[in-house]
Amino acid sequence: MSLTTLSENRSHGGIQGVYDHTSDAVGTTMTFSVYVPPHEAGAKLPVLWYLSGLTCTHANVTEKGAYRRACAEHGIIFVAPDTSPRGDDVPDDEAYDFGKGAGFYVNALQEPWARNFRMRSYIEDELPALIAANFPADMARQGITGHSMGGHGALTIALRNQPRFKSVSAFAPIVSPLNCPWGEKALGGYIGPDKDKWREYDAVALIEDGARLPDLLVDQGTADNFLTEQLKTGLLALACKKAGIPATIRMQEGYDHSYYFIETFMEDHVKWHAGRLI
Amino acid sequence: MSLTTLSENRSHGGIQGVYDHTSDAVGTTMTFSVYVPPHEAGAKLPVLWYLSGLTCTHANVTEKGAYRRACAEHGIIFVAPDTSPRGDDVPDDEAYDFGKGAGFYVNALQEPWARNFRMRSYIEDELPALIAANFPADMARQGITGHSMGGHGALTIALRNQPRFKSVSAFAPIVSPLNCPWGEKALGGYIGPDKDKWREYDAVALIEDGARLPDLLVDQGTADNFLTEQLKTGLLALACKKAGIPATIRMQEGYDHSYYFIETFMEDHVKWHAGRLI
């Protein structure tokens, strides 16, 4: 498993890199970023995954996420994958919330999406192996977070893969694709009309069906335009309460859905993960 | 003096805004960003100016500069102007280092630049008045910093306007346009062949000619591709030494010219300014 270095820049004493590789899982070239903090030679560091939201690539959080200071302080590797397969040969849709940039972290079952739109396998299996082989990563200590669609990805991947992810958080996550227009469009298109098959891609349904997390941190802005119709944080709070999952769900007054919100609470999240990974 | 709000987002307890206005100084619409940290009603806060480098607008540092956390902590307003006049009616050049995006913080004397390329007057006079009129700014407490061409702008504006700027710093500044290709091209084009007229736009020459600063912080990466040919930090160090200006000039091992470098040391700079403004 080889990768190509696109750029490496020193930052906060470590190296912020951007790499690409040929992905078997999704059948295209995929770009991702990795921040490796300063560390002693030979050390193996915990890994924090960050899954991005609709329309994003690795670049949004890499440039705007303000995670490097905290990751350098705590000694955590930060990995930011892309949100979908890419390239001229990949099927797409005109909408911003379906097709490229909107992989929804599923393995698609419907055509023409089934060959390439396999972001679940990419994030759960292929990319972790690549990270383990090429970076000083201790894969026994992984945490996961994400924003919006990526918050959905983080929650569902963590719920399906316990105890692999020892720490879980999210920024303004889509908590139940079964119950919002973004989710209905994406899962209807990628997975098909059988909603029973959607449940493994729905954090609330996974909890209802018995999946558990050790605990959970969520920040959600009260001025987020998507809160009422798409994100529905309350459904997650209720599901966690019923299931006995200790969830710290913070409604942040006046914050919106942007990276100005994410950067404000990023250090809190890194610290949360550090407390569970170190 | 009125401005139009393009966006306002809550971040680190304050408001990151982007605004535009019609500039008399440069004769075009100009966009700038202002971060106002959380503060008590009626309070007047110190102002830190950040001047950007070649090809940049207000957006680069606003998105990538990682200054909000520190400005919120210290209670400092952060203002990021554009780097040149903009618009279809403004003369331009194909090069990245002349014309739009490359105003060099001068008042041009040569045609066709003389009407619009008046960034010196814009930054020194017009925009401060607009800030004073529209934000909770204490204009008796101003500091200035900048990157590359903007470091040149910060140094020269501070040197020409003492004691207005009580604190001065720079990231990888162009220290002597008289002695580098970027400067020769820009000042030759905007000011003309008489190099005596360049000296008010050259930090080293201003110091040689008697201008002084109370003290100075500069960070410069050793892996910066522009260090040897364009930036020439050593000329500034020598001029400060000869003039008795206390200059903290830090060569940062392995850092390049990018915002990954800037973000690493931004909090140090905000703290430096806070120590002199608060």
TrEMBL record, chains A, B:
User: EC number(s) of the enzyme?
Assistant: 3.1.2.12
User: Which terms in the Gene Ontology molecular function aspect does this entry carry?
Assistant: carboxylic ester hydrolase activity; S-formylglutathione hydrolase activity
Give the positions the UniProt entry annotates as the active site.
Answer: 148, 224, 257
Its GO CC terms are:
cytosol
Keyword terms: Hydrolase, Serine esterase
Q: Which interval of the chain is the signal sequence?
A: none
- What family does the database annotate? Belongs to the esterase D family.
Protein's UniProt name: S-formylglutathione hydrolase
What organism does this protein naturally occur in?
Answer: Allopontixanthobacter confluentis
Corresponding gene? Answer: fghA
